[in-house]
Amino acid sequence: MSRSFFIQTVGCQMNVLDSELLAAELCRHGHETAESLRCADIVLFNTCSVREHAEEKIYSALGRLKNAKDYNPRKIIGVVGCMAQKDGQLIFRRAPHVDLVVGPGRFHRLPELLDAVAKGRGPCLDVSLDRADGDKRAVRESFVPFTPWRDGPVRAAPHQAMVRIMSGCNQFCSYCVVPGVRGPEQSRPAVEIIDEIRRLADGECLEITLLGQTVNSYKDVSGRKTIVLADLLEMIDAVEGLRRVKFVTNHPRFMTGALLEAVRDLPKVSPYLHVPAQSGSDSVLRRMKRGYDAAAYREMIDRIRLTIPGAAVTSDFIVGFCGETEEDFQRTADLVRSARFKNSFIFKYSPRPNTKAAELYADDVPDSVKRRRNNELLAIQNAVSLEDNRPYEGRTVEILVEGPSKTARKRNDGSSQLVGRTACDRIVVFHGPRELIGRIIPVRIDKVDAFTLFGSYGNSMNAG
Ligand code: 5AD
Ligand code: SF4
Question: Which residues, in sequence order, are CB contacts of 430 under 8 Å at separation 6+?
Fold first, then answer.
C-alpha cells in the first residue's frame, strides 16, 4: 500500500547519502515523498551517535511525536541509522510509540519491515551483530552494504552526487562509535562504483564526492589486480561528462605518495583533502589511538604542500579529550597556526558508551574548559582562513553553481544571490540568474571573509 514518507536526517554526509538511497528505495516500492514530517504517513529519523548532543536531539524530536498517532492512526515512526544500531531496544523503552528500529547495516530490509509494521506486525527491530555477538565473518555479513541505484529526483542537486566507495571502519579510535555502529571496513568493487558514476555522469551530474569513513584506505581485492584509491581516481577521471571528483574523509595513515600524485596529476580530481588531525599533542593522540604522532602529521602536511601546491587541506579536532592539559591544547593550537588548514571542524569531546576512551579514561576536562578551548581554536583557525582567503580578492575562480545562497533561501523571494564552490571547496556567493545553477562558471572575487568569497559574474568581469 502506497504511503507518504518524510526522512529527517542528522549527522554526516554518509547519513545524507543513506537518506537519499532510502528515499529511492521507498519510491521504488511505491511510496511517495511527503512535504513535511507532520503530514507524512511514515516518519523516519536517520540518526547520528557520534556525540551525545545529536542523540538527545533525536529523543526530544521523538518525544514531540508522542501523540502523532491520535491525528493519523496510519502514522509509522521509525528510527534508523547509527543510533538505531547503538541503542536498539532501548529506543522502544524510551519512546514506546516508535514502530521501527533499523541499523545502517540492515537498510536493505527497510521496505519489507515497513510493510510488516503497516500490516500490524510491529514493532520491528533489525540491527547488525555486535562485535561480541559472533565471529568476524558473521559480524561482517550482518552489515550489508547499502548501495542501491537512485534516480535524479531524490538527490538535492542533479549536478552533484555522493557515491559510497566503502562502508564501516577498522580504525577504532578510542573516542569513536563508528566502528561499532557501521561495522568492519568493506570496500565496494571498483566496477560497481564506475558503473554508478557513469550512469550519474550520463545524467546531469558534474561533480562526484566519494564517501568512506577512511576513504583513502579503499582497497578492492575482488579482481585479479588490487585497486587502491589512486587507481580508482584514475578510472573515475576517465569517465566522460564528469568534471570534478572529491573524496572524504581521509585518515593521515593512508596518505600515500601515489594518492597525492594522483590528486596532482588527474585533472578532474579536486586539490582538496579533508584529513583530520584530531589533536596536536602526542600523548593525546596516543590515548586517542590515532596511530600517528604530531611530527608524522606535520610531515604529511609538508608532503601535501610539496606535491600539490595550492591544495586546500581541512581538518577535524576534538578539544577537551580525557586528560588534555593546557600544554596539550597549546600543541593543537600550534598545529592549527602552522598547518594552515582551509577550515577546521572543532568538537568538544563527548564520551560514548562502548568505546575504549569511555572505558579507560575519565572525562576530566570541565565543560567550561572544553568550551573555551573550542572558541580559542576556532578563533585561531578563523584568522588563518581569513589570511589565506585574502589573496583571492581580485582573482577569478571557477565555481560549480550549487543553488540559491542561504540568504536567498531564507528570504524565499526569488532573490538572485547564488552560491557555488571552487574545486578547492571554497564557498563563493554572487548575484546571477538562476539558469546558472548546475553550471561551472568563472566568478571574479571582490571581497572575502574567513568563510566565504564574495564575487561577481557577468559583463563587469574581465575573465576569459
Ligand atoms: N566526541 C567528540 N567528537 C567526536 N568525533 C568523533 N567522535 C567524537 C566524540 N566522541 C569527531 C571527530 C571526527 C568527527 C566526524 O567527529 O573529530 O573526525
Ligand atoms: Fe571514527 Fe577513527 Fe574510524 Fe574516523 S577513523 S570513523 S574517527 S574510528
Answer: 417, 418, 420, 443, 454, 455, 456, 457
Instruction: Answer whether 251 contacts ligand 2 (Cβ < 6 A).
Output: yes
Which residues pair with residue 431 across a beta bridge? 417, 456
Tell me what percent of the residues of the chain surpass a pLDDT of 90: 90
Q: Under DSSP, is residue 423 helix (H, G, I), strand (E, B) or coil?
A: coil
How far is it, in rounded angstroms, from Cα 203 to Cα 84? 34
Cell numbers for 276, please give them: 583530520
- Do residues 122 and 108 touch, judged by C-beta distance below 8 A? no
> Residue 182 phi/psi, 5° resolution?
-110, -5
The answer, yes or no, to whether residue 379 has pLDDT greater than 70, is: yes
| C-alpha 250 – ligand 2 centre gap (Å) | 10
Radius of gyration of the chain (CA): 23
pLDDT at 462: 46
- Average pLDDT (361-383) is 98
**Adjacent-strand bridge partners of 404:** 418
| Ligand 2 centre distance from Cα of residue 276 (Å) | 10
**Nearest C-alpha neighbor of 296 from the set 286, 311, 308, 287:** 286
Measured in whole angstroms, how far is the alpha carbon of residue 41 from the centre of its chain? 28
Ligand nearest to the CA of 316: 1
Give the distance (Å) from ligand 1 centre to CA of residue 274. 14
Is the pTM higher than 0.90? The answer reads yes
Testing ligand 1's pocket by substitution, the residue of 14, 251, 318 carrying the most ligand atoms inside 8 A of its CB is: 318
CB distance 389 to ligand 1 below 6 Å: no
Q: Round to whole Å and give the CA distance between 145 and 295.
A: 36
**Phi and psi torsions of 27, nearest 5°:** -65, -40
Cell numbers given for 66: 508522542
Residue 189 carries which DSSP code?
A: P
**Cell numbers describing residue 278:** 584530531
Q: How many angstroms does the Cα of residue 176 sit away from the middle of ligand 2? A: 6
Question: Does ligand 2 come within 6 angstroms of the Cβ of 92?
Answer: no
Sequence-ordered alpha helix ranges (H) in 29-122: 52-64, 68-71, 82-87, 89-94, 110-118
409: confidence class by pLDDT, cuts 50, 70, 90? confident
